[in-house]
């Protein structure tokens, strides 16, 4: 069988992504062979392509996809040819077919399409660990979440609302504010026209929020500090505008005995038991109708460069998938 895939010889602008066709070897020990049906786009792909994260080169790209098992390597148990599966965090997902370690592969439950699985596994597991493990959100709490109309943000808004929190979303423009309000957020702050910290003070009666989930990084670090209540938790989980600056202990002290963490999904779903727990929560939230996944951009894989440019420009909403 042949595979078409995206490969980059160097990191940089979207046009470093090139296509190649090669012979796909039989799956090795512990691997499954997958015919891919839908591929997820995550901001992490941008970091890996642009050079924000160093990568050994040449490198394939893409971390998440859903499809059908077409072959099994030695020693694979619990999976069969014909199973519908999804995985996240396995480099090389921008491809028509591939081999992947069975240890990272999950069966897709009936009732969830391949498209939705690829559009929501990594983003949903991110919402799960952020809201249920990094800081356990409690009913009635006011929670500040950045990029509310984006892929992770739309899922997190609905998830947090289901946990009983009053979600405050930051996004850009009136249309995106409207979208956030439909995706679980009780308040939407327009970062283009409003003072975020002032609005948060207003909404919280001057107290600030117990937790901020900030994926923007450098541009919003100081604002996020300002928005936190005493003993608040700063969860810095992304770097859309560059990494947050180094944090001085004395800053945390003087801003109200704050906590600061920089978590990553790779840790929170590293052990297989955690991967199963987190993915099961994502599937359940979806099947029970608590979280709707909006695939607002759907493109052929040949348009991968345009899709990266669009995500980086901040002009997408919800999730993007590629059809291989
Ligand atoms: N640590 C983890 O485990 C983990 C896991 C998954 C994702 N993440 C992070 O979560 C964030 C969201 O990921 P995603 O894939 O769902 O992407 P996304 O939110 O769909 O896209 C990024 C969004 O960032 C917002 N943004 C704010 N300031 C921006 C600026 N100056 N330039 C461009 N965009 C800006 C834009 O939304 P508005 O215009 O609406 O503000 C944009 O839509 C990323 O930072 C990603 O790295 C972290």
CATH architecture of the largest domain: Alpha-Beta Complex
Largest sheet, in brief, is:
7 strands, mixed
- State the domain count: 2
Number of helices: 10
Instruction: Write the element-wise H/E pattern from the N-terminal end onward.
Output: EEEHEEEEEHEHEHEHEHEHEHHEHE
Shape: globular
Estimate what percentage of residues fall within beta strands.
25-35%
Short description:
The protein has about 325 residues and is of the alpha/beta class. It is built from ten helices and 16 strands. The model has no long low-confidence stretch (mean pLDDT about 100).
Describe the structure.
The protein has 324 residues and is of the alpha/beta class. It folds into two domains: 148 residues, Medium-chain alcohol dehydrogenases, catalytic domain (Quinone Oxidoreductase, Chain A, domain 1, Alpha-Beta Complex), CATH 3.90.180.10; 124 residues, Rossmann fold (3-Layer(aba) Sandwich). It has ten helices and 16 strands. The strands form three sheets. Strands 3, 5, 6, 7, 8, 15 and 16 form a seven-stranded mixed beta sheet that branches. A six-stranded parallel beta sheet has the order 11-10-9-12-13-14, with helices on both faces. The protein has a three-stranded antiparallel beta sheet with strand order 2-1-4, with no helix packed on it. It is globular. The two termini are 15 Å apart. The model has no long low-confidence stretch (mean pLDDT 98). Bound molecules: NADP nicotinamide-adenine-dinucleotide phosphate (NAP).
